[in-house]
Write a structure and sequence with these properties.
The complex is a heterodimer of chains A (349) and B (256). Chain A is an alpha+beta fold and 349 residues long. Chain A is built from 8 helices and 20 strands. In chain A, α2 crosses α3, α2 packs parallel to α4 and α3 crosses α4. The relative contact order of chain A is 0.12. Chain B is globular. Classes of the chains: A alpha+beta (349), B mainly alpha (256).
Amino acid sequence: MTRAVVELRGCTRDYGAVRAVDALDLAVRDGEFLALLGPSGCGKTTTLNLIAGFVTPTAGRVLIDGDDVTGRPPHLRGLGVVFQSYALFPHLSVRDNIAFGLRERRVPAAEIERRVGDALELVRLDRAGRQRPGQLSGGMQQRVALARALVYRPRVLLLDEPLAALDRKLREGMRDELRAIQRSVGITTVFVTHDQAEALGLSDRIAVMNHGRIEQLGAPREIYERPATRFVADFIGGSSVLRGRAVTADRVSVAGGALQVTGAALVAGAEVELAIRPERVRLATGPADNALAAAVDGLVYQGAQTELTARLADGQRVLVFVAEPAPFPLAVGQPIHLHLPADAFMPLA
Amino acid sequence: MRAVVVALVAFLTLPTLVVIAVSFNPTAILSFPPAGFSLRWYANVLAYPQFQRAAINSVYVTAGAVALAMPIGTLAALALEREDLRGRSVWAALLLSPLVVPGVAAGLGFLILAAALGLLRSPAVLIAAHVTLVLPFVVRSVWVSVRNLDPALERAAASLGATPWRVFWRVTLPLLRPGLFAGLLFAVIVSVNEFVVSLFIANRVTETLPVAMFTYVVNYTDPSIAALSSLFIGATVLAVWLADRYLDLSRVFLGH
């Protein structure tokens, strides 16, 4: 286990009566790309501000490289921050924006010149140096903000929803570029986002946050395939949660049918909740193993797939992604059978 | 619509035009239309010792008042917008209230205070009075700029390693420039033209130009005063024109 570069120990932050961050523990490893993912108001931006020093914790401690920096102001923390609005200085040229951090560090002029040039090259803006930020497109401003935060080689890079202000096409391009730059520089990065696709695609690890706490911390695949809580199962990728009663250690009775479940040690007779991803559910033409009878409740055609909502005999709903073209014509009210593979269930804590 | 605008512009500028016309009158009476063209009253004004002294006084008083009001007003605007003030609206009202106090009342107040402090002969009282009179204009102008300032910019500067003082110097102050210039312009115009309060507290030695002009008019009625007024008008127009040219006043006042 590599040591932690950034560590939050029992950090709490209150805004009046509102607890934005609640006794949070988090250790960011050297060189990793960690995403703080959650809905708005979950405390992810406050967590980032605690690391940056813009906000001091009501309780708890913040450590950077093992040093307690809890009371240290932002300008002494040596971190790089990219803001959602980019926060480029409108009265300075692109070059002077990027040189800002180097000037504050009293780097000799010749070296500033060289390093700003390198940074502009890194973000492919070699020719925009003399322009003002206001003259640049959103994507270019984003790259200036990144160059400005990287040029003085900070210990940690903090990104606050850096892609949120871009339109979709540009966002996808920037996402790949961001990842490539982060890899080539090898800098420890904490990334705040509410976009699960961004988090899944960019991060080494994801901390899923809700109500000021971390619900689950793990690699993207782990978060997606083995969500620890109902919230994570629902927030990432969307899941249906089926209630049933365990019959044996690997059999559950749900809505009048019986399902085989692997990978979980169930207690016979206990109430259980099983989450399943919509893309793992298959349509079956007739009664089969691990299949439940249902009726089509809703259909949303989306081109590559159709989102089908099925209603089970006891009224529980299951979301199904049916790849297009569908195996047979679908209509609302139509009786169908859902095949639920035994290894597709994610038992929730 | 158009006729209304033309009439309004005529109504607003007519007195000024009359004064300028009369200032070139060759005869020693304030008559309109002028009987010819002469610059003798301009020569008279520029050579009149009391006007010379008053002009220098005006420069000192305005410079002193503005030099004090600008930093005080800027800090006040920052505090009003940023600090967690109890009773913010009360503070704001107090800072902006000199605008609504009648000049006669303010002048009387300063006169009594100056007398009580034994400062009746000191130009410091005049400067202090002008500071209170121009401060609301400075506060108001800078406040608008503070409000338009994205706090993320200052956070960004701090994250880049700038101390709070450096953040203020390199980011906050440059971005407040439009408000600072607007405040400066207002302050200078208000201070240079200030008459009522100054009349109460100035004496023959410390009086500013508008007070000297008033004293002159009380005693003489030749076009000198029109010539001096024309110079005044010219200077003000020049100041506003320069400000508009280099500062884009529409942006300062309309906020875009």
